[in-house]
Amino acid sequence: MPTNKTISIGDTFLAGLWRENPVFRLLLGMCPTLAVTTAVKPALTMGISVLFVLLCSNIVVSLMRNLLKPHLRILMFTLTIATFVTIADLFLKAFLPEMSATLGPYIPLIIVNCVIICRAEACASKNGLFISIIDAIGMGLGFTIVLCILAAVRELLATGAVFEIPVMWKSFVPWAAMRMPVGAFITLGLMLGLVNLISRKKA
Amino acid sequence: MDTFHILLMAFVSIVIVNNLVFTKFLGICPYLGVSGRIDMAFGMGMAVTFVVTLAGTLTWLINNLVLVPFGLEVTKYICFILVIAGAVQLVEMYLRKVFPSLYESFGIFLPLITTNCAILGLCLFIDLWQIDSFIEAIVLSFGAGIGFTLAICIMAGIRENLKLADVPQYLKGAPITLITAGLLTLAFMGFAGMIK
Question: Which of A184, A22, A159 has the alpha carbon at shortest distance from B22?
Answer without folding.
Answer: A184
